[in-house]
Specification:
With 73 residues, the chain is mainly α. 56% of the residues lie in helices and 0% in strands.
């Protein structure tokens, strides 16, 4: 999950549907980007950066909840 993207969207007072509409995407397509299941194009990330006022490098950060090698033992 891209928590920074989700947090920035919420801070902007936008729903996932509103964000998808502003980007010209379907809701499902936007959700896949926010959930980290789809990378999204450079144009989408540029637009997200402009809409949210947060650098896309920060927005793209994913929360990796899988355990590391030491935690698997």
């Amino acid at each position: 999950m891209r928590e920074n993207l989700k947090a920035a969207r919420r801070a902007a007072g936008m729903t996932q549907q509103a964000m998808a509409d502003r980007l010209g995407l379907t809701l499902n397509h936007y959700q896949k980007i926010e959930y980290g299941k789809l990378n999204g194009s450079f144009a989408v990330w540029d637009a997200l950066e402009d809409l949210l006022g947060v650098h896309q490098r920060i927005l793209r950060a994913s929360l990796d909840i899988r355990p590391g090698p030491k935690e698997n033992r």
